[in-house]
Write a structure and sequence with these properties.
Structural class: alpha+beta
Largest sheet: 2 strands, antiparallel
Strand order of the largest sheet: 1-2
Bound molecules: iron/sulfur cluster
Distance between the termini: 21 Å
Number of strands: 6
Shape: globular
Helix content: 25-40%
Order of helices and strands: HHEHHEEEHEEHHH
Radius of gyration: 15 Å
Number of domains: 1
Number of helices: 8
Amino acid sequence: MPAPQPPTPPAGPPAGVCARCRRCCTLAPGQEGLVFPLSQADLERIDQALGHARWRAQSPNSQEFLAMLAKLFPKSPAGLARAFPLGASHWRLAVAGDGRCFFLGQGGCGLTPEQRPAHCRLFPVWRLGNHILPLRVECLAIAEAKDMRGLMKSLDLDVALVKELFARIQGAWGLEEGRDA
Ligand code: SF4
Ligand code: SF4
């Protein structure tokens, strides 16, 4: 994306570069309302894996939250308005008082890659039309990678997985490109 600002948290695999960094799994104070939303599939999968729902919290669909999503899905304004009406709320990852994601431990994310929210697996890689590119964010994986291929490799991503994860996110909210037309 020319690179819209990032959704807050998400991250990559627990081992490797993300375990050394953990930047995107920790929020600055007061940023809870800008955490990327969880889909119904994320909620059901993680609830089932944990056997409880203490890992998640709700935030209102604020103007600031919608503006963040609009940068990430610039071709889906109507879909965003349908999925996240002002005044309603959405589920997000819960964070501790110091801003750490509920799942963040000493070794990085405590969830398996398959359990993680789709946006956590994808970040900081995003898709704009047919382009796969890094978000313009501070990220150790981006800083250390020589190129896009190296970045994807360090995050255990490949083109097929990026497309699948992105389609999962779009499908969860009805944000497929062209649907707004
Ligand atoms: S390297 Fe990037 S994706 Fe991994 S934890 Fe740090 S900011 Fe997040
Ligand atoms: S679920 Fe895991 S990857 Fe996602 S923000 Fe929390 S610790 Fe980071």
